[in-house]
Amino acid sequence: MENLRSKLETLDVGSSDEHASGYEEPSLSSSAQAAQAFVTSSQSTERPKFVVRTENVKSTVTDKKSLLINALKRRYRTQYDAIQPIPYIKERLYCVDKVFVEGGTEFYSVRGTADKGEWVRVNSYRDIFTDSRIKSTRRIIEAEAGYGKSTVTLQLAYDWCNGVEDSPLKDVDILILLRLRQLGNIKSIYKAIKLFLVADEPRIKSSDIKNIIERCSSVEVLLDGYDEYPDKDKRTGSDVDRVITKDLFEDFDVSLTTRYLPKDYARYNTKRVRLVGFDKKARDQYIRKAIAGGNKEIVEEIKLALKANPILDDLCQVPIFFVMFAHMTHEKEYFQTFKSVTEFFHHMIQCFHDHMRKKSLDKNTKKHM
Q1: Shared-domain flag, residues 105 and 210
Q2: Sign of CA dihedral 315, 317, 318, 321
Q3: What domain of life does the UniProt record list for this protein's source (predicted)?
Q4: Domain-located, residue 367
Q5: Count of domains in the chain?
């Protein structure tokens, strides 16, 4: 009965338009006329209409997009809620928003066709995405180890997940944050997203991710740690290579963090940014925000510990050094006065060793040590 009804409905497509133009329908056979009369009388007095329904298709894409976004937010939450200022003290975990403090940020300004440019200071890391002088769909964020490249990406993830009002990502449909050290021998970026970001969502496949992303009006991609990428500076034909050279996601906003520039990237379409560390204002802000709260005595205690050793004071311009020093000074009495710089470095090396070992244990990551 359903097949017969479908055939009859197909015969009736656009009949009113055809009569209006003077076109006469060919007469149906007697059996078809009888069947049509039976279908019509059993349901309604109106003539059946053939309608192409797209609601179900749209609904499926919309539903899967919501599933993807929720899965991404769950994954990012586990990352930004697990900041360890002192890597080997695992019981000290912080949300990134509770400890993030901006250091200095600069962009590389080149005028006209000049070969060389100059580094120009901006007010905030948010200017990387909003300053018209740095506006581009491709940017590279450079800094040495310990200057907070990964922390910036986690703060951006926090902003997106929580809809922070003044965040440059608040209107972005989807944020993709991938750790490149995990992506060795993985050609498809959609497979990487499935494996490392939404593995806990069985209703989303790699093909769904591709379909959803291609339909989005706004996607932000953060590729963290090119210098740790197992396939760096190789021509593998992977999606990561194609994104960096702007052959994939051409219209999407992509930021790459790294200690050095890739050999092959979209040079004339890429803006360069660098993080330059903590000045005294940033250090003071970190102590107050992450450690002391409103306790002025703690603030002065940590400042005095730094002033007691000018060499440490210089070293603590590097954010990771300062963060470790500040927390160790506050949390351990015997850290408050180091007998020598050697003693300080002994603990720094212990922290770095644990930090790198943790990275090397990531699934699909080559050993770093």
Answers
A1: yes
A2: positive
A3: Eukaryota
A4: no
A5: 3
DSSP letter (8 states) at residue 337: S
Residue 125: what residue type? Answer: Y
Q: Is the pLDDT of residue 253 over 80?
A: yes
* Alpha carbon 277 to its chain's center: 22
Structural tokens at position 263 = 């050999």
Q: Which of 320 and 333 is assigned the larger pLDDT? A: 320
Mean model confidence pLDDT for the chain: 81
pLDDT tens digit sequence for 119-132: 999 999 999 999 99
User: Could you tell me if 19 and 166 lie in one domain?
Assistant: no
- CA atoms of 295 and 344, how far apart (whole Å): 25
Q: Predicted confidence band at 93 (pLDDT cuts at 50, 70, 90)?
A: confident
Predicted TM-score (pTM) of the model is 0.78
Q: Tell me the C-alpha distance between 88 and 350, whole Å.
A: 8
Alpha helices (runs of H) in the chain, residue ranges in sequence order: 2-11, 15-20, 30-43, 55-80, 96-99, 127-130, 149-162, 189-196, 206-215, 239-244, 280-286, 296-307, 310-315, 319-331, 341-360
Q: 6's torsion region: left (phi>0), alpha (psi -120 to 50) or beta?
A: alpha
CA–CA gap between residue 250 and residue 110 (Å, rounded): 22
Q: Which domain holds residue 339?
A: 280-360
